[in-house]
Write a structure and sequence with these properties.
Layout (H helix, E strand, L loop, with lengths): L2 E4 L16 H4 E5 L23 E2 L6 E21 L5 E10 L7 E10 L6 E21 L10 E2 L1 E4 L1
Parallel strand pairs: 1-2
Antiparallel strand pairs: 2-4, 3-8, 4-7, 4-9, 5-6, 5-7
Length: 160
């Protein structure tokens, strides 16, 4: 069972496939918002790829997802998938890691991707990283860098 919390303010926080970490077993997930029909649990349920299950934010605008690890982790790869079948938008993903209990974060990646349905609707990224002693991993999603009132989505997030 995935341990999760919805942000009501900034949190105070005390893999199933080959080489993937089992997020539900090693971390608590903090998320800004989620819809009842597309909760954050879907990001970690193994139903991936185009047409897979996905998380959808309950509110438009920037969203934050934090994995608070039970013990510090070494991360070698980070994978994610995003599908947007309906809205033309350019989203921005900002990924960062903390080794001090979430007090400060070091940027790992910043990525932009433009969805242009019906043609370009799916993004898959796998990033090689080399970070040790990670206590928190943060993903900030700006669903449309142009400021349109869109909701963020995420199909999967994997760690190795």
């Amino acid at each position: 069972m995935l341990r999760k919390h919805l942000f009501t303010a900034a949190p105070v926080v005390s893999g199933h496939g080959s080489g993937e970490m089992d997020i539900a077993a090693i971390a608590t997930v903090w998320v800004t918002s989620e819809t009842a029909e597309a909760p954050i649990d879907h990001v970690f349920d193994q139903r991936r790829g185009p047409g897979g299950s996905r998380w959808v934010a309950a509110e438009p605008g920037e969203q934050r997802l934090i994995l608070a690890f039970d013990t510090p982790q070494t991360l070698r790869t980070i994978g994610l998938e995003v599908e947007e079948p309906e809205v033309h938008r350019t989203h921005v993903l900002h990924l960062s890691a903390s080794s001090d209990g979430g007090q400060t974060y070091q940027e790992l990646r910043r990525q932009e991707y433009t969805f242009s349905p019906p043609g370009t609707t799916f993004e898959r990224e796998t990033w090689a990283v080399a970070v040790e002693g990670v206590t928190h991993l943060q993903l900030v999603i700006t669903p449309d860098k142009g400021g349109a009132p869109c909701r963020a989505t995420l199909t999967s997030l994997t760690l190795g």
